[in-house]
Amino acid sequence: MDSRRTLRGSTTEAVLQFLKPHVKLGGLTLLAATPLAVVAMLVPQPLVLPVVSLAAIAAGGLAALIAWLIRAKRRGNTITSWDVAGACVLIGCAAAMLSDPENVLNLLGAP
After folding, report:
1. Is residue 12 part of a domain?
2. CA 84 distance to own-chain centroid
């Protein structure tokens, strides 16, 4: 009877260890998607992509600064802070490429 309880405990721990990176990824995805949804609802439609681009690049810079300050590992078996920073900048660059240059000029207030 005791061996079964030990086996169940180790199996549960193994499952939790397996799911830990996936739960982190889901949490980070939800954390990133919430501001994007708010921006999409509050900003006029032509300015959504430029604003998302600026916000994502700023978030990537902030995540990289935090990762640098806490001296986070650059390589690992799970998602690192550097991975999050890179993903934010990649999303920002993609949104910038998809946005219309005229809308960016309107956002910056150029004539």
Report:
1. no
2. 5
pTM recorded for the entire structure: 0.64
Inside any domain, residue 9? no
Residue 10's identity, in one-letter code, is S
Q: Confirm whether 41 is domain-assigned.
A: yes
Q: Is residue 100 part of a domain?
A: yes
Q: Quick one: tokens of 56?
A: 């994502």
The one-digit pLDDT tens for each residue of the chain (111 residues) are 455 554 455 777 877 787 777 787 778 778 767 877 887 788 888 888 888 888 889 988 988 898 888 887 778 787 788 888 899 999 999 998 998 888 777 767 766
CA distance 58 to 95: 13
